[in-house]
Protein: ATP-binding protein
Organism: Deinococcus ficus
Amino acid sequence: MGRLHPCPAAGPLAQRRVRPAVHRFPLGPGRRVRPGGAGLPDRVLVRGRQPEGGGGGTHRAHPLAVPGNRRRRRPVVAGRVAADRQRHRLLPVRPHPAAAEHPVSPAHPGTVHALHGFLGSGKTTLARQLEAECGALRFTPDEWTHALLGASPPEALYRPALQALLSLFEVQWTRAAEQGVDVILDYGFWRRADRDALRARCAQHGLPLRLYDLSAPPDVLWARVSDRNARVQAGRAPESVWIHEHDFHRFHALFEPLGEDEPHVSPARAVR
């Protein structure tokens, strides 16, 4: 409730209730504040305005505080939002004109270069050579496991991570080969079952396959692995992992050479 203040418009003896003016908004043109004197609140004067109830006075409360005189919203807001949504909406992707001039023919997919060989047989060296000569996309799991798990990951972490990477790689290299890009699988393919699965997948997607056989005596292989272990420990082989001698011999017992019925390419004819 406001205080009782005299209203000059209704006469000297009339009284009315005036709500104290609260200046929440800046005063616009034609408005000024008149001090109310000792014990009285300030009044906002509006030119040409009459107090409620009639009279010839010029004082009243701030018009923005009266419910019937609220500030109107700008009518362009809704239109502006609609225009922004129309301007930033997702449009259908259109092919680039250069892509239309040089389309990828599905009759000429990329070649799948699969490298078969044991540890230290030179698979990654050949893979990099093929990558440079053919402009192929290379998949070397050891580089990824080294980046994710370090140079000497435990067996409990290495095997699940390797299987997850191979599953992701399978989708990527298949899609790339279907688009006409040569791919290099620097996997090793130690087991015959893995090579059979690779041949079946390439036949399913119509991809040409070239299987490379890299081999060397066990003592030569271990000498290469030992030299690589030294570079891994020195931090000069970020693409390799450290192999223990016990694991080397254990893995070699699981290695399955190529069969006579498996067509392959010798390293001498690797780079075309």
Notes: The chain has a mean pLDDT of 76. The chain has two domains: 24-67, 108-269. DSSP finds eight helices and eight strands in the chain.
